[in-house]
Amino acid sequence: DDKVLATPAVRSLAKKANIDLTKVTGTGKQGRVLAEDVQKFVEQKSQPAQTAGQGQTISAQNQQQKVEQPQKQAPPQQTSQTLFKAAQGTTGEEKLTIKMNDFQKGMQKTMTEALKIPHFYYKDEIDVTQLMEFRAKIKQNLNANVTVMTLLIKAFSLALKEYPLVNSTYDPEKPFEYTIHKSHNINIAIASQNGLVVPNIKNCQDLSIMQVQEEVNRLRVIAEKGQVTPKDLFGGTITLSNIGNIGGTYTAPIILPPQVCIVGIGKVQVLPRFDGTPKDGGEYKVKAAKIMNISFGCDHRILDLSLIHISEPTRQAEISYAVFCLKKKKKQCI
Question: 298 by DSSP, 3-state: which?
Fold first, then answer.
């Protein structure tokens, strides 16, 4: 069921209920399988048939009322439905204790430490129309599929050259100092069947767009296979988390310690926006723009509101970089 669109949480619930996701009809966007789709499937699968003799049906819904009647009842059986509801904590006294896997244990420890960080958030929108045109040019001219995430990774690396403080790490054991890193080791959050993993791409400042894309592809493959190495996981300096692939816009991402910044990337939407300055008669022209929402989560011990405009160089970096490559046709850009 690797090709089925579903979140790791839904995959986990389906696995607990012993359900093959390829047999479940998804009602979400683009056929995505939702939690309620899995629940409906197991309910249909576990529907009891009519019993002979008594001529009555004992279902999960009326079982409690039937047990109060004088007729003899068969002992209840464990079904995928009861396991599914037990996992969700919706079956009264029934409980199911789930042991965390190694990925989940690591996430639990990291997020517990992360909640000690005093976060502040800055959220904005970016017009990525030119960036999307640049992406289309790459696909047309090079016959290569470059993701928006890859372009943003390179754009953020360019912005970090101008604002290196954002590329810092902080050790609470040394409360009055922090470390600025020259290497842009950018973490990306990847949803896998084993849970959320956050490996990083090393030295993005030295990589071309196509080299970044190769690293993104490599990390996704090994994440899905559960083969991410410690080398891939450690040494990151800033994190990008894409919630746009599940339809999200703004978010409040939690920093991955010891880093001091994480950026949530929202989906690209075509929205009406005013175009530049007023035209004749003082009226603005409305255009269709491709807009992306972006959410910065910052460690307030290191970063403060004086850096609230850090989204501006990011915005300019991604646009100017795209235009530069299109006009100059520099091979090192791609």
Answer: strand
**Residue 127 among the catalytic residues:** no
Strand, coil or helix: what is 282? coil
How far apart, in whole angstroms, are the C-alpha atoms of residue 257 and residue 262? 10
pLDDT band of 93, cuts 50, 70, 90: low
Q: Are 48 and 59 in contact (CB under 8 A)?
A: yes
Q: What is the pLDDT of residues 216-268, one digit of tens each?
A: 999 999 998 888 898 999 999 999 999 888 888 999 999 999 999 999 999 99
Bridge partners (DSSP) listed for residue 293: 125
241 bridge partner residues: 264
Strands (E), the chain: 119-127, 168-169, 179-180, 186-188, 190-192, 195-197, 200-201, 238-242, 261-279, 283-299
Tens of pLDDT, residues 269-297: 999 998 876 666 677 888 999 999 999 99
Torsion of CA 174, 177, 180, 181, to 10 degrees: -20
Among candidates 81, 85, 92, which has minimal Cα distance to 43? 81
Q: Could you say which of 102, 171, 304, 309 is catalytic?
A: 304
Active site residue 304: yes
Distance, in Å, from the CA atom of 174 to the CA atom of 184, rounded to the nearest integer, reads: 22
Judged on CB neighbours under 10 Å (0-12, 13-18, 19+), 280 is: exposed
Residue % of the chain over a pLDDT of 90: 41
More confident residue, 243 or 84: 243
More confident residue, 267 or 97: 267
Tokens of 145: 């599929």
**Residue from 46, 45, 51, 26 nearest 36 by CA:** 26
Q: Which of 20, 171, 206, 300 is catalytic?
A: 300
